[in-house]
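Please decode residue identities from the backbone states below.
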């Protein structure tokens, strides 16, 4: 179900660039060491993709792991997406009679985003022990800010397999 959702639309709204989610499975427990390892791998891959000649990536000295519930992550995102969609539709429809095809096409992306978020929320709600994990650079003095934030949405299947949707978000 997750792969079908991501096949249609896969852009996380809290990122400043394309940050598609990827689906992973794991048998191991998702402890702090595993989370930080996945985070470092994603950061390393992103740096390498931007500049293949870049020196070996070194993760920030301190990274902070933040946990949220599905509701804490998805409720505000869905509410904001619905508000944007209703605002665009209301404004577009109020200006034109009859409704032009361009108007209809202009609201397709917000519709896709609402569908994407609600399907992810609904699918992960069916799993057990769900949690949202975000890994931030915790450079307190901000001398070398890292624009990357790792997002992981995790839950366990009935077979006790960890299902992960993960992305590296760009947030400056």
């Amino acid at each position: 179900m997750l792969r079908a959702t991501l096949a249609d639309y896969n852009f996380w709204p809290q990122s400043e660039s394309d940050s598609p989610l990827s689906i992973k499975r794991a048998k191991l427990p998702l402890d702090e060491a595993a989370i930080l390892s996945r985070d470092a791998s994603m950061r390393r891959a992103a740096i390498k993709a931007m500049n293949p000649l870049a020196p070996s990536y070194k993760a920030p000295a301190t990274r902070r792991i933040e946990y949220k519930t599905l509701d804490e992550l998805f409720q505000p995102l869905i509410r904001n997406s619905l508000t944007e969609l209703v605002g665009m539709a209301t404004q577009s429809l109020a200006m034109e009679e009859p409704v032009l095809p361009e108007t209809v096409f202009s609201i397709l992306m917000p519709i896709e985003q609402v569908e994407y978020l609600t399907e992810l929320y609904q699918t992960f709600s069916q799993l057990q022990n769900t949690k949202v994990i975000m890994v931030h650079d915790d450079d307190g003095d901000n001398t070398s800010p890292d624009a990357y934030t790792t997002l992981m949405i995790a839950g366990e299947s009935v077979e006790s397999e960890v299902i992960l949707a993960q992305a590296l978000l760009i947030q400056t």
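Observation: Residues 148 and 170 are 5 Å apart (CA to CA).
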